[in-house]
Amino acid sequence: MKTRRSAFRSRSGIGRGERGQGTLEYVGMIALAALLVLAIVAAFGKGTSLADVVSGALGKITGI
Question: Which residues contact 64 (CB under 8 A, 6 or more apart)?
Answer without folding.
Answer: 58
